[in-house]
Design a protein that fits this description.
The protein is an all-alpha fold. It has one domain: AhpD-like (Up-down Bundle). It has ten helices and no strands. The radius of gyration is 17 Å and the shape is globular. It starts with 15 loop residues before the first helix and ends in a 10-residue tail after the last helix. The model has no long low-confidence stretch (mean pLDDT 90).
Length: 200
């Protein structure tokens, strides 16, 4: 794709309703404090694309706000799931965005490379490997196998298991949108694009 199918609007051109769509992404939760934004890429191409349809953006952000801020998973577990979705789906935009967040939740560069290699790469704990394997199974067959579920259930409670499935679904949908709409990497994201990962 040589140019976006749906161009990103500049912030100055965003409809007023887009501000409301962004507001639902900003809840406070002491267990999962707001993601650090200072000095971080702003993802304006992704947001500018969604600004073409603020009502849809608000609906998605309401759901995704739970995944980001109110999930029962740890931030590290959430980011492992998101990164594996991005790797499997070949969503460069999603991958690079979450490489930035991965550093904040303690995911190392070596682990990023292993996320790309998948759940059978050496060095994963049993639960981390099962999280990555759950992503692969959900994306391939829309179902976590009994063996993977049993491993996850040894460490995760019911709400965490549910959050894991919905996290994969949320970011699979976003990967579809990014790739289909042709969302381009922002200039401030390109500095992070050297980490191993998918290319579109």
């Amino acid at each position: 794709m040589t140019e976006p199918r749906i161009p990103a609007l500049e912030p100055s051109d965003w409809p007023a309703s887009m501000r409301e769509a962004l507001a639902v992404l900003l809840p406070e939760n002491p267990r999962h404090p707001r993601l650090r934004t200072e000095g971080r890429p702003k993802a304006l191409n992704a947001l500018g694309t969604l600004a073409q349809y603020p009502e849809l953006a608000q609906a998605y952000h309401t759901f995704n706000g739970h995944i980001i801020y109110n999930t029962s998973l740890s931030p590290r577990q959430r980011e492992l799931l998101v990164l594996r979705v991005a790797a499997v789906r070949g969503s460069e935009y999603e991958w690079v965005q979450h490489v930035v967040l991965a550093a904040d939740v303690g995911i190392s560069g070596d682990e990023l490379a292993r996320v790309v290699d998948g759940p059978d790469a050496t060095g994963w704990s049993p639960v981390d490997a099962a999280l990555l394997r759950a992503v692969d199974e959900l994306l391939a067959d829309a179902r976590v196998t009994d063996a993977t579920w049993a491993t996850l259930a040894q460490e995760l409670d019911t709400q965490q298991l549910m959050d894991a499935v919905f996290t994969v679904g949320s970011y699979d949908l976003l990967a579809m949108a990014f790739r289909t709409f042709g969302v381009e990497l922002d200039d401030d994201l390109r500095a992070w694009a050297s980490e191993p990962g998918p290319t579109t």
